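Title: [Solved] Ribonuclease HI 3D structure

Original question kept below for reference.
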Amino acid sequence: MEKISLGTLGGSSSRTYATREVTAEQVSRRVHVAIAMWEEPWKSGDDAERKGWIIAIDGGKNRRSVCEDGVAERDPDPLAVEALEAELAKLNVSARDVWVVTGKRQIALRSLLQKAGFDVSGSFSPQNRAVRRATSLMQRRRKATSIRVPEGERRRRRKAAREAAPETQWLPSYSRTEARDVNAVTISCDASSDTHSTGSVCFVASTGDYEVETKSTTASIDDLELVALTKALRYAVRVGARSATIESDSAGALAAAHGMHKRGTDGRRRGGIRGNVRRDYYEAWREASESLDLTLKRVLGHSGDPLNKAADQIAYLAMRASVHPQEASEAALKKGIASSLAEATEGGAPRRRKRRRRGRRGRGQAPKTT
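Solution (posted by the thread starter after getting help):
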């Protein structure tokens, strides 16, 4: 059987690393803008969606504003750009003084903004001063779009048509654990899913160790991200680390973890994450917190962080390889894993990090989160 190349295995879809990188020049711009787009189905009438935007502008002290609107059956992207230009005109601000951030999937919107002369990033970077306001308002406005009508007038719910998923050929799973008695380790976690039948979880450690597991599952991406965190905790205990920083780009998984550190878990499904996944994480966290200093840290996905990029690539490649015959895809997958690890850990050697003194926590104390 003819073997497939690494390029074919990776596919043609962009992983958007370049569009999400933040530069010092962008952060230093006088005006920061965050555009949050939303869409919600109407709960009455014909099949239709209402789409809208929240534009938060932060120009420094006493120069903040928000504009919002929504439309039905129209492309909202050009209207959002026009609204931004109108608001900036009121503030007497030109495009060259502005840094705009959008959601990572808003490719068409970013293209229009760039044509209009704006410097744009495809991520809600916390370094953008307007992000927090835009995202919090977006969540509230989305809920307000649902119209309450009498039961007899409501549109009947229809089951979403499921796309035909490629047949799973094999379930790639690999790991390497060579480090022992580690003083400090950073572990980055990620997951990938086809949303139908297959998902992969992965962690990559600063020691050069890693684990990737692919399984047949219909679990949500937050489920899988929490599974990756669980594996990272167990790895930190296994190698005898005295302190560990565990990174994830999943806000949902980190929120679930933080909640369990405070309140424990009753083994029930909460926040879209299954009870058994929560229980496994909580047990791993309790064991790890007994013996090492833990820090949970959120990183921005696809932003260039070397370990996070490697974990993302390996999980994605393993999930992609699962739909090709093993004899055709395994060599390309192993090559991709080796390349990702070499790039992230400088050829497999542990990264040199500045050692910082940290106070020891009491037994069972919740890890710090950043």
